[in-house]
Amino acid sequence: MEDIGMEKELILTAGEWAVAKEYAKGLQDKEVAENLGKSVWTTKTQKKNIYLKLGISTSSELTLYVICRYLGKAFDLKKIRQFGVSILFSLLFVVVQVFGDTGDMCRLRNARGRASMRLEKRLKD
Q: Which residue from 38, 74, 103, 120 could staple onto 1, CB 3.0 to 4.6 Å apart?
């Protein structure tokens, strides 16, 4: 992999890095703004600037960038786009196995459970 990730990470300001980490958690614009004490418009603008600076276009690529930076690995956008999302899920699996942090996975599972309960209720009515 080319070492372009380390160059690009220097481009992000501290504020943009904080925004990138929040979006990488899968949060929505309003949640990111609330967590950082900023307006929704500010976080959206910073997200747009992050995408432009890194040359990315999807939240999956942003998440992978954050993971690569935490792991100290180069962020090679060409390889990511070549292999698609499978590389992202492989890295996520490794991160979860290494760090054992499943807090957000529990949140996701609970959200799915509530959605299925609402669906069951609608089907009964």
A: 74
